[in-house]
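Fold this sequence, please.
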Amino acid sequence: MTRSFAVTWDYRCPFARNAHEHLVAALDGGADWDVTFVPFSLNQMHTEEGDPAVWDDPTKTDTLLAAEVAIVVRDRFPDGFRRFHVAMFTARHDEGRDIREPGVLRAVLEESGLDADAVMAEVTDGWPHEQYRKEHQAAEEHHRVWGVPTFIAEDRAVFVRLMSRPQGDGELARTTIERTLDLVTGFDDLNEFKHTSIPR
């Protein structure tokens, strides 16, 4: 049976990068999953009480742009989403590019084989901004999500930190995600499990 689940992301987070690289490598390797990729704003979660939400604060517009571009690719150009999604994490964490800059986003789009003008025109239309707000708020309100990556399956939501990257190994990626999902959906009694230190 196909497993259906969702996973949150914010391109700023290295642990989101690890989890989403596993997701993409496994899917590209043939994993039979129905995955929903959910944008989530860490900036919004760090908004001080009394300050406007990031969606309504013009000084935070640049912090939302990367996810808005990704929403367009996910919803309008889905065949290119996984490639672009990984490229965005690479740009942010491996290459140190500033993904708040429209020029950088255009470059990553083009490097991913996507039409940058078409994608940015959709962003300008405004609907990705509202979609971002809607998906973030739904995750926060319905599942009490507060961080990334959070796996949501069978009405359970669990924040997860995976320490490794798949390095292109689709089978390792599939096994890693399957083990994670088994804990999310199959062991209700486990509320918290955290190593006091990580042997390296």
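The chain has a mean pLDDT of 96. The helical segments are 14-28, 42-45, 61-76, 81-94, 102-111, 116-125, 127-143, 170-186.
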